[in-house]
Amino acid sequence: MPAYLRRNWAVVALIAVLVIGMVLPLATGISAPGFYLEVLLGGLMSGVLYSLVALGLVLIFKASGVFNFAQGAMVLFAALSVARMSEVMPLPVAIVLGVLVMAALAWLIERLVLRHLVNQDAVVLLMATLGVAFFLDGFGQTVWGSDIYQINTGLPKTPMLVGENLFQGGILINSEDLVAAAVAALLVLALAMFFQKTATGRALRAVADDHQAAQSIGIPLNRIWVIVWTVAGIVALVAGIIWGSKLGVQFSLSLIALKALPVVILGGFTSVPGAILGGLIIGVGEKFAEVFLGPILVRQFDLAGGGIENWFAYMLALLFLLVRPEGLFGEKHIDRV
Amino acid sequence: MLYRENGQFKSSYAADQQLLPIAQDRWFVIGLIVLAYVAVPALASDYMFRALIIPFVILAIAAIGLNILVGYCGQISLGTAGFMAVGAYAAYNLVIRVPQLNFIVILVLAGCIAALVGALFGIPSLRIKGLYLAVSTLAAQFFIDWLFARVKWFTDYSSSGSVSPAPIQMFGWTIESPIDKYLFVLSIAIVLTLAAKNLVRGHAGRAWMATRDMDVAAEVIGIRPVTAKLSAFAVSSFYAGVAGALWGFIHLGAWEPLAFNINVSLNLLFMIIIGGMGSLLGAYFGAAFIVLLPILLNQVPGWFGIPISTALASHLESMIFGSLIVFFLIAEPHGLARLWAIGKEKLRLWPFPH
């Protein structure tokens, strides 16, 4: 056994349990292959959305050390803006306006909140973003209304049947989901290009590495923060549109987005690939837990219904924290007095 | 002029260590307690008891608990409502399964059970802190929510999932009228506040505060982080559990699992931010603020003839909460309690400039 595996046996064991848990339903014949694949795809799809929200969190955390509790509220706010504006104008215009709104929001947050809290504890900043989240929730619903709104992306919503000759019954795939996944992948790609190839991206990475060093070579921290919050706002906008067209734009969006917290724990606070992989693991994991583990628990313990996907992600993150506090790809943190 | 400590000499250790060393403070607190026991029951209406005063007192207990954890020990928690739920359901199960127990004993036991659960979910705090801990307490919140909604044993197999215990009886006293309820929760709040005050100024509190200020340094000077953190979780959850049991039995009367959802946790966090972190008085200020604001928002526009819908009022409420939190974190991180302390300092000199 190589030394690396021996040192991280607990992580390896946890991942092994996850993999076994994923294979077990198929191996024991609890589910038909077609159904299994459908659950898997459904999980991946919600995982993509968690990844998108988590991506926004990671971007902000890397650049400013702020854990943005308001990311969920930003998703809701962006989705509400686009949904209500698209009622009176074509969707592309509404989306462009939505981007402008998110940029203005980023500027305001930097001006009114972050600028005054420089050098504060991470926990204080977290609580400040909690305040921002509450403000945004209330503000968005005051301005845009609090009903359920639709975003019509014009994509066909009829499910396709594929693989009929491979499995009995085939599997149903929503073409809208495929487009959404493609858009998400494109967004990630564009972000990667932005970070790796542009001068602003280089400045962002420099700030992420070391605030003081970046400032001393002339990178304007305040402007970088505005940029990074804008980028996070755009990511939130994309997540909001995809989610909103799937489920309708409503208040529960900002609660679902809370699931991005365990995702970043799993992936590591500072890692973009971690956010994506973590989102997929959480998405698939909780779908599997709900569909395959839930009924077993209900039968065994005579529960009043399933719903374990409400806490599965958090408990998974909790277990993960115990064995590997820095997450899958996070940087190890060493405390000094 | 009136508020000054000249001439108040301490001539014994007991005098030096007493809770309120300044005589005026003592009179003020005694006066306040007398007021709370005599004047409030005489003046307040039933509506005020039900909508304002009883929720205020119970939430203040929970806020003290959270303040011990967040304000004194520096461990952020988003799962207080989960621990309140543990206390409420523990008390409910004790009442229906061991009916011969006195309600005070039940309250203490419920608090202890909540403390155990709290310490259990506090274990991750030994390896992680800050943001990571917030997630692990969220796990507690969502898991506990689910547990009480789904496992039928906890709700005694009631078909709707909600529970409705009978009115509390003890020592031949049935706590049913609002005044009885108020006097009961007030007494418990006073006892618990006194206990908390003595805890935080004693050995345990100093260990918590050292851990809060810098846990590695605290460890270096010989404070055991395991004991300090887990005891803060346990004590905090004890308070939350007692408050939860009171919230269920006395304020709500009958409740369903949703009564202790994440919004309650967040509201409690707001109470201690606005009231003042690391201050017991702040817990009372914050609780009063959070209870009063929604009612004011519903009433005040009506006085000016501006009709305001309940939906709009609730959105305005969350906007005001949000901005106030940011405002307090920026302008006065120690909250209303700090303003109070500044006022007291000013009063010591008044009316002289120096």
What does this structure look like?
The complex is a heterodimer of chains A (337) and B (354). Helix content of chain A is 72%, strand content 2%. In chain A, α3 (33-64) packs antiparallel against α10 (221-247) and α13 (272-301) packs across α14 (309-323). Chain A has a single domain, classed as Orthogonal Bundle (ABC transporter involved in vitamin B12 uptake, BtuC). In chain A, strands 1-2 form a two-stranded antiparallel ribbon. The radius of gyration of chain A is 21 Å and the shape is globular. By secondary structure, chain A is mainly alpha-helical. The longest helix of chain A has 32 residues, at 33-64. The model of chain A has no long low-confidence stretch (mean pLDDT 79). Chain B is an all-alpha fold. Chain B has one domain (46-349): ABC transporter involved in vitamin B12 uptake, BtuC. Chain B is built from 14 helices and 2 strands; from the N terminus they run ααααααββαααααααα. A two-stranded antiparallel sheet of chain B has the order 1-2. In chain B, β1 and β2 (173-175) form a beta hairpin. In chain B, α4 runs parallel beside α6 (131-150). The chains are: A mainly alpha (337), B mainly alpha (354). The interface between A and B is large, with 52 and 50 residues.
